[in-house]
Amino acid sequence: MSEANFEFDLIVIGAGYGGFDAAKHAAEHGLSVAIIESREMGGTCVNRGCVPSKALLAASGKVRELADAEHLSSFGIHAAPVRFERRKIAEHANQLVKNIRNNLTKALERSGVKILRGYGRIEGTQKVGLRESNGVDRLISAKDIVIATGSDPFVPPGIETDGRTVFTSDEAINLEWLPRWIAIIGSGYIGLEFADVYTALGCEVTMIEALERVMPTFDTDIAKIAGRNLIQGRDIDARAGVLASKVSPGCPVKIELSDVKNRELLEELEVDAVLVATGRVPTSAGLNLESVGVKTNRGYIPIDDSMRVLVDGKPLKNLWAVGDVTGKLMLAHTAAAQGTVAVDNILGKNREIDYRSIPAATFTHPEISSVGMAESEAKEFAEKNNFELGIVRSYFKANSKALAELESDGLMKLLFRKDNGEVLGAHIYGLHAADLIQEVANAVARRQKVNELAIEVHTHPTLSEVIEVAYKQAVAQLKQS
Ligand SMILES: Cc1cc2nc3c(=O)[nH]c(=O)nc-3n(C[C@H](O)[C@H](O)[C@H](O)COP(=O)(O)OP(=O)(O)OC[C@H]3O[C@@H](n4cnc5c(N)ncnc54)[C@H](O)[C@@H]3O)c2cc1C
Ligand SMILES: NC(=O)c1ccc[n+]([C@@H]2O[C@H](COP(=O)([O-])OP(=O)(O)OC[C@H]3O[C@@H](n4cnc5c(N)ncnc54)[C@H](O)[C@@H]3O)[C@@H](O)[C@H]2O)c1
């Protein structure tokens, strides 16, 4: 039952991970909830992001492993040449999307959330306009509104997409064909993950990065070792400091590369296909945010750490925003965590999110992961707060499990406070880095110190001992200082 005069206690706009978690959490706590979705239930992650891309990475990863004759022969294994069916790999991803989308939709229905299909917009305080697919437009009221409209791929000016020869991740996840030669623009998460898929499946890859080094958003040490394996080690032709200034679809696709600084034309390339992986933009243009006075920051909705939408820095009552549309760590689990925090505040629990403890991972083979502060950020923090920053490196080549797997190329870098031992961040490249980072993320969430962490017993032989070694090295540094 909703509060007097409102049709619902809560209306959520957008049924991605952020909207899903908010709606489910609210319904499970007795609120009457409606969720509005204009496309497929599940949003980017389920339909065009995490889920299908991880299915492609799983299948192509197996191809890579079985095709690596040198690695297998080190174990004395000799496999027959690998064959794969592109169509079946694509079907695996597609089927997984359908299953997860169905499960998620049923979970919402079971918890009592009303699913409304159509396009939602704000129509003043506590009111939402809903344009249904049959053209009917109606107003609905709710005590609280959560905006969770997510993001879409960013395509820089000068780049024309046709969805077939020049495309973004929205189309790449369908794996409709395998180009002989593909250029990937951008060396962030999407560029790296798809380079992993394409190289495993036999495509030649050129990677184009506008900033001065490839993998510019990753820790420098991690980027160095990861780049050596994931880029140079795979014969990817990587160019940094060049801008893909013009891309014209067709057969072949024509690319103009320009100098980032003076925009002078450097080179023209002709390739079979181009994947544009140059970031994402918030989906907020049609939300009619002006009706409540909200000004976006390049499309991102300003919020505080309780998820309240801000106008001129001050929180609005009853309006909340979560997920990619807020531009904070654009990850599925961030969106979900923000959704829960927003609803807890609606329920009067007074909660704030802790972005520092949210981990991130790139699911390449091997993986890259991180949590907490980057080294530059930690240095600045140390200077401001008058303490010395501790940095230790723990190598996979000293780890029995990694050596047994013949996968010992890996590094963990741990950042901590030398005055009290508190863990500030960690960056890992190596086998199962995505799973390993969780242990450090939990420590960051509890603001734990290396002294207490170093005495915790780790299973032998496991990769988690890489973290144990880092904690012990950090304690040794503390003793010396
Ligand atoms: C290729 C790729 C791989 C990724 N892999 C990972 C990964 O491995 N791990 C990870 O954590 N993150 C990953 N991400 C990021 C992750 O997908 C996003 O961070 C996450 O989906 C954000 O969730 P959200 O709820 O904020 O928005 P979205 O998932 O974008 O959902 C927003 C929903 O709102 C709907 N909508 C928008 N406007 C309206 C409107 N006005 N009315 C009604 N409905 C509307 C949209 O149709 C959409 O369904 C990946 C992204 C991509 C593109
Ligand atoms: N495993 C994961 O968690 C995962 C996987 C995929 C995507 N994501 C999410 O999706 C978001 C988008 O991913 P992404 O890889 O598109 O963005 P990104 O911001 O990580 O990387 C984009 C890269 O493209 C470069 N670039 C931009 N314009 C260019 C141009 N004209 N020419 C050459 N280079 C150019 C940028 O310098 C940058 O390095 C990520 O921020 C992440 O939050 C997460």
TrEMBL record:
Q: What S-S linkages are listed for this chain?
A: C45-C50
Q: Which UniProt keywords apply?
A: Disulfide bond, FAD, Flavoprotein, NAD, Nucleotide-binding, Oxidoreductase, Redox-active center
Q: Is tRNA-binding among this UniProt entry's keywords? A: no
CC cofactor: FAD
Please list the GO biological process terms of this entry.
Answer: 2-oxoglutarate metabolic process
Domain Pyridine nucleotide-disulphide oxidoreductase dimerisation residues, every copy: 358-469
Query: Which reactions does this protein catalyse?
Result: N(6)-[(R)-dihydrolipoyl]-L-lysyl-[protein] + NAD(+) = N(6)-[(R)-lipoyl]-L-lysyl-[protein] + NADH + H(+)
Which gene holds the coding sequence for this protein?
lpd
Top EC category: oxidoreductase
Gene Ontology MF: a single term: flavin adenine dinucleotide binding
Q: Which Gene3D superfamilies match?
A: 3.30.390.30, FAD/NAD(P)-binding domain
- For this entry, the protein name equals Dihydrolipoyl dehydrogenase
> Which annotated residues bind NAD(+)?
G186, S187, G188, Y189, I190, G191, L192, E193, E209, G279
The entry's free-text remark on the cofactor is:
Binds 1 FAD per subunit.
Q: What is its EC number?
A: 1.8.1.4
- Describe the location of the FAD/NAD(P)-binding domain by residue ranges: 8-339
Give the similarity note.
Belongs to the class-I pyridine nucleotide-disulfide oxidoreductase family.
Spell out the catalytic residues. H460
Question: GO cellular-component terms in the record?
Answer: oxoglutarate dehydrogenase complex
Which residues does FAD bind?
A: K54, G120, T149, G150, S151, D324, M330, L331, A332, H333
> What further fact does the record state?
The active site is a redox-active disulfide bond.
